[in-house]
UniProtKB/TrEMBL annotation:
It is found in: Cell membrane. It is a lipid-anchor. This is Efflux transporter outer membrane subunit. Residues 124-151 have a biased composition (Low complexity). It comes from Phreatobacter aquaticus. It holds the Pfam family OEP. Keywords: Lipoprotein, Membrane, Palmitate, Transmembrane, Transmembrane beta strand. It comes from the Bacteria.
Length: 519
């Protein structure tokens, strides 16, 4: 196992260690540091530099993964380079440009970039705890004293300056575990950015495919309605000639109107997809609708995607890598909480000088300094620190389950996308065959009807069936393209171009000291 589910605590004495009761005080001001202090300092520094740690050390958890995907044609390893930029296999320059614009302007990506900057700053902030801190102070005081009954006034000046320093020796690795957790958090933020980009690319591609599909279906409905109106005009002429009944004319007009009624619904759906694309690009909802209307047909992939092996999701899926880094972060926090059960040692120093004139501050006779260690030993806290460790252990277990769930979800996504794409392609072939035959049947029915050798019912049924078959074929093409998009996302293929998370969205100006203004 990668870590102990319930790591045992080391044996301790009858007192439960805490951090509330100091065990030693700082040497008096002006005292000389003796040899014992030097030995203590050297010993503590050696322990600190040597590194002592508590809590479990993280190891990547082993997972039992299948040897191959159930619905994959081949079982060969897959690299990230082989699946990055999968949308380019559509060969659609409009889609390529939309995705590039979305990466630059999407607001979810901007938030993910800010989280990366936050994680990096948190890491630097945490690392500072391993170094000593030094604070300086200076003051100047002018005082005047009046002697009662004498009428004499005495004035005096006092100048003071000093330095205070403190350094908590990380004997049991609390600060190092905190830094380890910050490192893992920074890595998780990097993966979160990659995951956001992957989701963005998939959403742009899916909405683009759907928008193209709605336009194609609306165009089909208009063409079909026009053809059906032509049939209705032919029927009207036959009615006037006494060769057909008014019932046939009513049915022909109704069929054309019913087909044309689909156009507003399809136009609404197209507009909604176009609006979603505009927002994904960080623009106004209607920013790309006109561009999409000038585009081409429903995109279809020109090359297939290699499925790879199930183990590839561990390295290719950013959401899985993010969950694994969060598990490592939660493991480090156990050691951070565990270190609070042990004594803490800090080293403090003070240097102060004072004088009635500024020049006196540099005189050796006015210097006062102190130097020495301080030890805090936990004695009693009613189990608060132990409970804090158990809290972090429970959070680690939650992260482990989340990581395992992310892996299983990734495998499920790939399997569903593989079978969905394969079956939709089979369905699309059958619909293509049906469409070709319905088109021929409709042509023959109109010819026979014009020649008077067939009833209008045959024409009506043939035209209705043809429109339904052609519309189903267009929908199947949209579904197949969407399945291909889902497969690209499931395999972890994403944006491989440059992304700069260090560029802030807002650059503050005139943020230094200045005169305050009224709000």
């Amino acid at each position: 196992m990668f870590l102990q589910r319930n790591p045992p605590f080391p044996h301790r004495g009858p007192l439960s260690p805490g951090r509330n009761t100091p065990a030693s005080a700082v040497r008096d001001a002006g005292a000389v540091v003796g040899p014992w202090s030097i030995r203590v300092l050297v010993t503590l520094a050696g322990l600190t530099l040597g590194g002592c740690a508590v809590g479990p050390d993280y190891r990547t958890p082993p997972l039992a993964l299948p040897a191959r995907y159930e619905h994959a044609a081949r079982a060969q390893p897959n690299s990230a380079a082989a699946i990055d930029g999968w949308w380019k296999r559509f060969g659609d320059p409009v889609l390529d440009q939309l995705i590039a614009d979305a990466v630059r302007g999407n607001l979810d990506v901007e938030q993910a970039k800010a989280r990366v900057r936050e994680a990096r700053a948190t890491r630097r902030q945490t690392a500072a705890a391993l170094a000593p801190s030094v604070d300086g102070a200076a003051s100047a005081t002018h005082s005047r004293t009046s002697a009662s009954g004498t009428g004499l006034n005495t004035s005096s000046n006092l100048y003071q300056a000093g330095l205070d320093t403190s350094w908590e020796l990380d004997l049991f690795g609390a600060n190092r575990r905190s830094l380890e957790a910050a490192d893992r958090g920074r890595e998780a933020a990097d993966e979160d950015l990659r995951s956001t980009l992957l989701t963005l690319v998939g959403d742009v591609a899916r909405n683009y495919v759907e928008a193209r599909g709605y336009l194609a279906r609306a165009s089909l409905a208009r063409r079909t309605a026009a053809s059906q109106r032509a049939t209705a005009e032919l029927t009207r002429a036959k009615v006037q000639a006494g060769a057909s009944s008014p019932v046939d004319l009513a049915k022909a007009v109704a069929l054309a109107a019913s087909t044309e009624a689909n156009v507003p619904t399809l136009e609404t759906s197209f507009t909604e997809s176009a609006h979603r694309l505009g927002v994904l690009l960080g623009r106004a909802p209607g920013a790309v609708a006109g561009q999409l209307r000038r585009g081409s047909a429903i995109p279809a992939p020109r090359r297939s995607l290699p499925a790879g092996l199930p183990a590839d999701v561990l390295s290719n899926r950013p959401d899985v890598r993010k969950a694994e880094r969060q598990l490592a972060q939660a493991t480090a926090r156990i050691g951070q909480a565990e270190a609070a059960l042990y004594p803490s040692v800090s080293f403090t120093g003070n240097l102060a000088t004072s004088g009635v004139r500024v020049g006196d501050l540099g005189n050796a006779s006015s210097l006062i300094w102190s130097l020495g260690p301080s030890v805090s030993v936990p004695v009693f806290d009613a189990g608060r620190r132990r409970a804090a460790v158990e809290v972090q252990q429970a959070l680690r277990d939650q992260s482990y389950s989340a990581f395992h769930s992310a892996v299983l979800t990734a495998l499920e996504d790939v399997e569903n996308a593989l079978v969905g794409l394969a079956q939709e392609r089979v369905r699309m072939q059958s619909l293509g065959t049906a469409t070709r035959n319905y088109r021929e049947a409709a042509r023959l029915a109109r010819v026979r009807y014009s020649g008077g050798t067939s009833s209008f019912l045959d024409v009506l049924d043939a035209e209705r069936s043809l429109y339904e078959a052609e519309d189903n074929l267009l929908q199947s093409r949209v579904v197949a393209a969407s399945r291909f998009v889902a497969l690209g996302k499931a395999l972890g293929g994403g944006w491989s171009g440059p992304v700069d998370p260090d560029r802030p969205a807002i650059v503050d100006q005139d943020a230094g000291p200045r005169l305050a203004t009224q709000p």
